[in-house]
Structure formats: C-alpha cells, structure tokens
Amino acid sequence: MGADAQGPLTSPITSKNLSVIERSKQLAAWTAVDNHVKSEHRVIGIGSGSTVPYVVERIVMQGPEVNEGRLFIPTGFQSKELIVKSGLSLGDVDQYPTIDVTIDGADEVDKQLNCIKGGGACHLREKVLAEAAKTFVLVADYRKNVEYLGTNFKPGVPIEVVPFAYAKVLQNLHHALDCPQATLRMAVAKAGPVVSDNGNFIIDAPFSMERMKDPYTIMVQIKMLTGVVEVGVFCHMAVAAYFGNQDGSVTVKYSDGQVKTINPPQ
C-alpha cells in the first residue's frame, strides 16, 4: 500500500508545529510504513527510538479495517506504550516467532546497513524481533547515517552480560579483544549499573574506527565470550534504512547498495 493509496502525506495529529528535522523524521517513518507494512501483514514488530512514534502513527492511519486482527510485538517499554495508547493489539514473540515486518530505530547505520543498537539497553529483544522478521527496516535521523560504525555514536558497542560474569567479560574486552576503554554502563538517576529488562548488566565497548570497518568480526568475537548474552551490532539484517535529513528530505539506503532521495511534499 503506497503513499497515494493512503492519502497525502499530511497528518491530523502531529504535522503542525513540527521542526524541519522532525517533519523529515516523520516523512522517513511514514515512507517506511507505506513501502513495507502491507495490508496483508498480520504480525508486526515495533521498535524503539524517536522516529518510532511516527511509525505507529502511520500504521494507525492505515485504518481500523486494516489493523483489525493485526498483532503488534514491542521491543520494549516505549513501543509497548505506543501500541497500547494507539489502540492496537499487543502480541508476543513467544506466541508468534515469525514476524511479517519489524521497523526499528538505530544508534548508527553504516553503508552496508550494519547498525549499532542498544543505547537504550533493549538490543537483546530488538535483535530477536529483527531476526524473527521476514523484513527488517530501520528508520532514523541523518546523524545515524554514517560510512562506518563508531563515527558519531561514541559510547561503543553495547554488550548485555549476565551480572556474575561482567568483571570477567570486561577483562576479556580489555586484554583479549584490545578494548581498554570498555566500561560497565552506570545508571544516571540511581546508584549502580544499568539493569536491562532481562535483569542483566550492560557494557559499552568503544573499538577503533579501523576495527569497526569490520563489525561482523567484532560481533562474533564478543559473542563468543562466556557470559555475553547479546551484542548490539546487527549485521546483514536490514533490507532498507530511511533517514530524515536536516533539509526535510529523506535518504533511503537499500541492502543492494541503492540510494534514493525523497523530497518533502510541497
């Protein structure tokens, strides 16, 4: 179902008073929905990030007759709240391990559509929903669009670890994997480390730009460390990424290397 079939790209909900960059993020999210969330899709994964409310908004605009009988599987608290508040039906991946399409945000996306996720400590569930999806699509703003991972997102690769193994994994990262700046992520509003929805700790491991040119190798090396639950590097998974630009346009990058520009509506 394309944009023409759903009506002009104007929203009764949020288009008024949005900044240019927010309108471009909205256009990116709406275009991703129009291109990838088809009326026949029944199970849809909803990710997290500042562009995702626009994803849900556009899905709602497809109409109650389309959304009736659909199930929406959230990656975390934010997406669950968006689904519930929008009047859409919640599902769970343990009931529906095959998802038609998942749309999610990203902390950074490289030229091959590899991405870093986990800035919000949800990357375990996010990767499960990405792998479960027949189609995985990313939506973000222009700051996340980079040639190599680690260009703008400086905290490093998010790593979820079981609590009793975090010191061992840190030592492995510092010495075996030559990442001396890897640190346990600490909470901001309380004393102690960040705890994921799964009860685990998060380590942030900043690797050099040169090593991040091969994110798949880094992902595998970290994943092989005993105590690691999941790594916030997603490789060879997304089919397309939509980026809202500063001038209001949208850049679309595809897994086959194609790049397109969508200009904002007049």
What is the fold's blueprint, element by element?
Blueprint: H1 3-6, H2 20-36, E1 43-46, H3 52-61, H4 64-67, E2 71-74, H5 77-85, E3 99-104, E4 108-109, E5 115-116, H6 123-132, E6 133-141, E7 157-161, H7 166-176, E8 183-184, E9 201-205, H8 209-212, H9 215-223, E10 228-231, E11 233-234, E12 240-244, E13 250-254, E14 259-262
Parallel strand pairs: 1-2, 1-3, 3-6, 6-12
Antiparallel strand pairs: 4-5, 5-11, 7-9, 7-10, 8-9, 12-13, 13-14
Helix pairs in contact: 2-3
Describe this structure in words.
There is one protein chain. The chain has helices spanning 3-6, 20-36, 52-61, 64-67, 77-85, 123-132, 166-176, 209-212, 215-223, and strands at residues 43-46, 71-74, 99-104, 108-109, 115-116, 133-141, 157-161, 183-184, 201-205, 228-231, 233-234, 240-244, 250-254, 259-262. The chain has 266 residues and is α/β, with parallel strands linked by helices. The chain has 2 domains: 20-147 and 236-262, Rossmann fold (3-Layer(aba) Sandwich); 157-232, 2-Layer Sandwich (Alpha-Beta Plaits). The strands form 3 sheets. It has a 7-stranded mixed beta sheet with strand order 2-1-3-6-12-13-14. It has a 4-stranded antiparallel beta sheet with strand order 8-9-7-10. The longest helix is centred in the N-terminal third of the chain and has 17 residues, at 20-36. It is globular and about 55 Å long. Mean pLDDT is 93; it is low at 1-10.
